[in-house]
């Protein structure tokens, strides 16, 4: 990228990077022809979208391991960058006698990204009874200039009626085939997870 700036102190705030972290090599060529170079390390906020941009994904397929029952599904997710601080999230997952809808957002700060999403589900599951409920998810993530990525996520299943599609299909298969279905998430109310990752660099690749 090349840009002209006025004499004196300056800043550039419209760079589009394709990685979460790295180094910016800056070369300044003055009107006199004098050249200076310096490096600026940077880290971007995970899960956030630049202002005015949209990120979306659409998927249609079948859930693995559940081919002996109706297992086709459709899934869509959308993210919109409102400004440099706020990103809005929307999503849906639809299958036979199952719907789940998600809404939430990401708040980007200099200390990292704070996310809050709420998901409501409606399903026919155990004994073909209707199960409805919602789940709230609170998360924190930060990528450091060293490449280290930290993710903390606390999930709260606030009602017994919330169901993931995986659990719904497992219960339906058990009812049809008699194969026992075991799940740690079927009646789970709380969950806390932490992930730390660090790229090892090209020297570790074959």
From TrEMBL:
It is a multi-pass membrane protein. InterPro entries: Fimb_usher (IPR000015), Fimbrial_membr_usher_CS (IPR018030). It holds the Pfam family Usher. One of its GO terms (biological process) is pilus assembly. Its main location: membrane. It is found in: Cell outer membrane. GO terms for cellular component: cell outer membrane. Signal peptide: none annotated. Keywords: Cell outer membrane, Fimbrium biogenesis, Membrane, Transmembrane, Transport. GO terms for molecular function: fimbrial usher porin activity. Gene3D superfamilies: 2.60.40.3110. The keyword Lipid biosynthesis does not apply. Transmembrane segments: none annotated. The keyword Lyase does not apply. It comes from the Bacteria. PANTHER family: FIMBRIAE USHER (PTHR30451:SF20), OUTER MEMBRANE USHER PROTEIN (PTHR30451). Belongs to the fimbrial export usher family. This is Fimbrial outer membrane usher protein StbC.
